[in-house]
Input
Amino acid sequence: MRNRILVFEDYTATVDRLKSNALFMVDTAIGKICLVKVEGQLCFFKDSCPHLSVPFSQSGICNSFGEVVCKEHGHRYSLHTGNEVEGRRESLAIIPFEIVENQLFLLL
Output
């Protein structure tokens, strides 16, 4: 069974306020996690580019193609699959989550 970490106590109110394709940081019990709302869906991943561990919070942007881009070296990762778009690097680990009674939990 996976560990659950509570991220939002009121999922609906929080998600409604999030701007699409903007990178947000969420402090959790396991450290900073990045959050992006893409095409109405949420995506969570560690605040660390798989290429050189550069924090996305310092050098990441999200584009209109549903990708997070590390500005340090230009590597692009799909927020749908986690794959590096050009296949040059290992994938970005997308963190699964679940919503229970309007609370959002990361599943680790």
Notes: The first strand starts at residue 4 and ends at 8. The radius of gyration is 13 Å.
